[in-house]
Design goal:
By secondary structure, this protein is of the alpha+beta class. The chain has a domain of 185 residues: OmpA-like domain (60s Ribosomal Protein L30, Chain: A), CATH 3.30.1330. It has 10 helices and 6 strands, in the order ααβαααββααβαβαβα. It has a 6-stranded mixed β-sheet. The longest helix is centred in the N-terminal third of the chain and has 23 residues. The chain is elongated, with a radius of gyration of 32 Å. The chain starts with 15 loop residues before the first helix and ends in an 18-residue tail after the last helix.
């Protein structure tokens, strides 16, 4: 008998649909995973953000400005930081934190009108109490001679600082506009002269000169970018830093392996 021919198998032209369907499925799964990763829990994100802010607020730059209707509040952060670094916090250092708070409140009282006009800002941080004064209140443009009214205000500040035993650092700051005069060839000379003028006035009003230092930073430490006249005016300032004794204590922490005493001077043959 004659064998029956097997039916010929036709080539399946739709086989690509299987691979295409697998690709679409994987692509869908990929975007689902990406969406799940990008979707943040707002509550957990806020907790993380607050934790980071709290951690970084231990830096000096994180202090909140003191407003006229809100005097500086006592903070336990300096003492907490000292404990973490292994520094024994005695009652004297605790008292120093309270004393710094009192200094900030006293400065707030004598400079209340200028604080209200946003010409003066007072902050308290790990370093101590910072008094930031707009240069336009103290000096004429391009000058380092204190104006009469500003001298009276600084004299009141000196009366607050005279009985305080802490070290005082006076810093002069300018904007980035260049200056070139006979007395001030650059912003370095101008910023240094302005800081020195404040130091000299404090000295004349009872602040111990051995506790003070004058520093000129020129335009190298702006608080805001020098983009317009308003920001430049913000950067022209004099900063008075009353350094906390706790900060000095932290600086005295010895480094492991470092000599506790300086090496003796070399002998001259």
């Amino acid at each position: 008998m004659r064998r029956k021919k097997k039916p010929e198998e036709h080539e399946n032209h739709d086989r690509w649909l299987v691979s295409y369907a697998d690709f679409i499925t994987l692509l869908f799964a990929f975007f689902v995973v990406m969406y799940a990763i990008s979707s943040l829990n707002e509550g957990k994100y806020r907790v993380l953000s607050d934790s980071l802010v709290t951690a970084f607020k231990k830096a000096p730059s994180s202090a909140m400005p003191t407003h006229l209707d809100q005097p500086p509040q006592p903070s336990s952060r300096p003492i907490t930081a000292a404990k973490k670094l292994g520094v024994e916090v005695d009652p004297k250092l605790k008292k120093q934190t309270e004393d710094m708070r009192q200094v900030a409140q006293d400065l707030l009282k004598v400079l209340a009108p200028l604080v209200k006009d946003n010409q003066v800002k007072i902050t308290q941080s790990l370093r101590g109490v910072t008094l930031e004064i707009n240069a336009s209140v103290l000096f004429a443009p391009g000058q380092a001679i204190l104006q009469a009214e500003s001298a009276k205000a600084l004299a009141a500040v000196a009366q607050v600082l005279a009985p305080v035993p802490n070290r005082i650092q006076i810093e002069g700051h300018t904007d980035d506009a260049p200056i070139s005069t006979v007395y001030y060839p650059s912003n370095w000379e101008l910023s240094s002269a302005r800081a020195s003028s404040v130091v000299r006035l404090f000295d004349l009003n009872g602040v111990n000169a051995e506790r003070m230092v004058a520093i000129g930073y020129a335009d190298n430490r702006p608080v805001v970018p020098n983009t317009d006249n308003e920001s430049r005016a913000r950067n022209r300032r004099v900063t008075v830093l009353i350094i906390s004794e706790l900060q000095d204590k932290l600086k005295e922490i010895p480094i492991a392996g470092a000599p506790t005493e300086p090496p003796p001077p070399p002998q001259v043959q």
